[in-house]
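Researcher: Please generate the 3D structure of the following complex. Treat every line as part of one assembly.
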Amino acid sequence: MTPADTLRFASRAALAYPVRTALMVLAMAIGVAAVVVLTALGDGARRYVVGQFASLGANLVIVLPGRNETGGVNAGSFVTSTPRDLTVADASALLRAPLVTRVAPLSLGNSEISVGGKLREVLVLGTTADYVDIRNYRVAAGQFLPREDLGRAAAVAVIGDTLRRELFGNEPAVGRMVRIGDHRLRLVGVMAPSGQGLGMNTDEIVIVPVATAQAMFNTNTLFRIMVEVRSREAIVPAQREMEKIMRARHEGELDVTLITQDAVLGTFDRILGALTLAVAGIAAISLAVAGILVMNVMLVAVTQRTGEIGLLKALGASGRHIRLAFLTEAALLSLAGAFVGFALGHLGAWGIRLTWPVLPAWPPQWAVIAALGTALTTGLLFGVMPARRAARLDPVQALMKR
Amino acid sequence: MAQIELSGIERIFRLGDSEVHALRDLSVSIEAGEYVAVMGPSGSGKSTLLNLLGLLDRPDAGHYRLEGRDVTTLSADEQAEVRRARIGFVFQSFHLVPRLTAAENIGLPLMLAGVAPPERAARVARALKDFGLETRAGHRPEELSGGQRQRVAIARATIMRPAMLLADEPTGNLDRATGQEVTALLEALNAGGTTLIVVTHDPSMGARARRQLLMEDGALRQDVRRPESATPATG
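Model: Done. Output below.
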């Protein structure tokens, strides 16, 4: 029996039972489609997050108070376990590092903004003039915070686009006075709509000078410091310079954490990659179920066609001929299911991309190859047992059936 | 040397605790080109004998020499090869593959033997013509009459030009006229030199054979040869 004959014989056999074959192909297709769609979703989420971080600016270092690493024992560790606060003075000190180009201290708090009887809860961000350049934000009207001494608490504010719409509607906002908490501030600018953004969204915040925010919330500490270094390559040496400065300022103890863009990105990349893998694994279970279905269907086929197997044996078919014919049939069913599922999966991924255009939901190459491979392997693997059973049938008994 | 030589064949089936001697100490030899009818009541071992002759079953004791070669010791795949090349089967229930056309059913042994498609097509076309099935080539078994089905089965059994044709009640499922037609066809093939061994209940069919083996309780009771001169005209 030539391979072409085996293939033709098996495909004729598969087509002879259209309902059974269609159901089988559907089961396998659902498994493969699940893998394709879910990995597309997972990988899309990963790419989306990574893309968002990349838009933050590549040569950014974020300084956080506190350190989650075990260091050596020093005098400070006996006095208190709470780290020293990050202050505005720390921020200005960091600016003295040669590789650092810009520094934006961030102070954060919740307050209320009121204007003309309208009142709402807002997030107040205290920072400096450089913040807008570090984050690549744009100002739609007026200007950003004035460039002045970090300690000066000017009574000015910049608001997000949503706030402007809610508080002023179509009236011009720049130049108006607003009340934030107990402070009266003059609006100097409105941020451009930032659209979808990761983490903080400038549409609904009030930006004030850092000293104003600290006065408002009665604190000296900073939420974090954003530092822009000269270039991407300068990140590592700049980090070392900054650590030196912070150590000197904090009595020899490095009680801040420096996070680079790459580290954050790498972490998210890893987390979401693992998530995609987990989702693919769950979807693969349906492939295993489909594999068991292939076995079941093929066992039924062997029983159904016992007489035919007996006949083939009488006509001189060897065990190998019969094994191959049934294995080929199982493989064909799996393969058809895999391709239908592949198409369905891509259709689903396309649907996701259409519904959420921001999500680049493309199934990763590895997932597609793995799904097709698994489908074929399970089909073949679970096809072996029925095929062997068919090949081992006693021809006399088999011929008596029917 | 006889074409088929059976010596001391035993075949025992175990059903639970009891043993059934389907064949006991059977020795018989059949020459090439003979026309043999195996007859006897049901349970006498006729079908078991036919299965043994067709290498579908193995004896528990004794030897089967086919064309001088001891085939009882062959492996299953070697036996399959012998079946493919030397033995043709005709069954009472035709045993056609329902999803294949008449032509494809006839071509099955050629496909199993790995004959190239062009040659296969030519041989199938000749067989269709020889058996008067040209117009039915593309029909599936369910679209054929009983007689046509058995003609397809016979065409399939002879397409490899086997040395012997084993027929198990070939007319059992056919009406009288069609049965006679099929019998004539088998006898014509026998006249062409193929050994024909028919298992039958039907005394009139058995009477047509030149040699009758009468079985009873798994043993050969009578081996009747009719003188050559009394052979009825075939066809």
